[in-house]
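dumping this here before i forget
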Amino acid sequence: MVVEMHTVGTWTWVNIEIDYPKNLTNVFRHLTYFNGTLYWIGRDDKNASIWAFNFDTEQFQFFSTTPRPKIKFNYSVGLYSS
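structure:
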């Protein structure tokens, strides 16, 4: 997959290629931004994973999670501060 990123204040676009599974769907309503990185949850029929995009390095990263349970529930990503 190719993601196009626009630099604000310029007329330039950057193409970033990532190995993104075709069967993965995104849960964009639960985005979290922290320290220059945007986090979201992607999921398929069996698993969910946390995805991240770092705006400074223009790099994607993902973190595997445990298999999804057979019951239906909601996922979210948030920032906790004590």
